[in-house]
Design brief:
The chain is an alpha/beta fold. It is built from ten helices and seven strands. The strands form three sheets. Strands 2-1-5 form a three-stranded parallel sheet. Strands 3-4 form a two-stranded antiparallel ribbon. It has a two-stranded antiparallel sheet with strand order 6-7. A hairpin with a 2-residue loop joins strand 3 and strand 4. The two termini are 49 Å apart.
Length: 227
């Protein structure tokens, strides 16, 4: 199966209203994947907010617990902080410790070593929620019994694919000029390929005129960079 996890620009408070914990969300996604497999659908798309991990109900509890263990102050020497295993053993065993244990090491390190202006632990700046969820869903599916196929139980494969749509969702729609220019460059590039013209750059002449009067042309790459 292929799970395309996309980090979309959704409401940062969405998870706070639903109060779904990480384990519940992972279980729900895994159950949807299993049902789709039985229906013969082996691919799908899951949209995940970039702030998903930050807004988990248990994440605030985890930050408070780590702050009480490590302290609100940070220093330049990492040796002054307790080891990951020591922090893990001092966390409440209910739901906070399993969450900390499952997080990637880079996230654990950031929660222990970094603080915000209020002294609370910080998550990594480049945290990719879709990769964490994809990893947890993969672990969840591996722990489940295999599907029955041909009288035998077979472990179904699961290969998540990740795409960050933050920049794309922030981009405006292409204008009529953008569409005409892209159309012209595409056709010019196709002609260069057909004529086997290598080291040419597709371009367009007469762009001060209406698009119907534009002229396709090509410039040798060596002309642009003679050295």
């Amino acid at each position: 199966s292929v799970l395309t996890s996309t980090a979309g620009m959704t409401d940062a408070n969405e998870n706070e209203t639903t109060k779904d914990g990480l384990s519940q969300v992972v279980s729900e996604i895994s159950e949807v994947i299993r049902k789709r497999r039985k229906a013969g659908r082996h691919s799908g798309v899951v949209l995940i907010s970039r702030q998903f991990i930050e807004t988990l109900p248990e994440m605030e509890e985890l930050k408070s617990a780590i702050s009480s263990i490590v302290g609100p102050e940070v220093g330049p020497n990492p040796a002054q902080f307790p080891r990951f295993e020591e922090v893990e053993q001092q966390l409440p065993p209910a739901n906070i410790r399993p969450l900390f244990k499952r997080l990637p090491r880079v996230v654990q390190r950031s929660l222990i070593w970094r603080r915000d202006a209020a002294g609370k632990p910080l998550l990594p700046r480049d945290l990719e929620a879709e990769r964490i969820i994809g990893r947890f869903v993969q672990q969840e599916l591996r722990s489940q019994p295999g599907l029955r196929k041909g009288g035998q139980k077979v472990k179904a494969s699961f290969a998540p694919r990740f795409h960050a749509m933050e920049i794309t969702t922030s981009s405006p729609l292409p204008s009529a000029f953008d569409c005409a220019f892209g159309y012209m460059l595409g056709h010019t590039a196709a002609m260069l390929v057909r004529e086997q013209r290598n080291f040419y750059v597709a371009c367009c002449a007469g762009m001060h005129l209406p698009p119907r009067d534009w002229q396709p042309c090509a410039i040798p790459f060596t002309y642009l960079y003679p050295d």
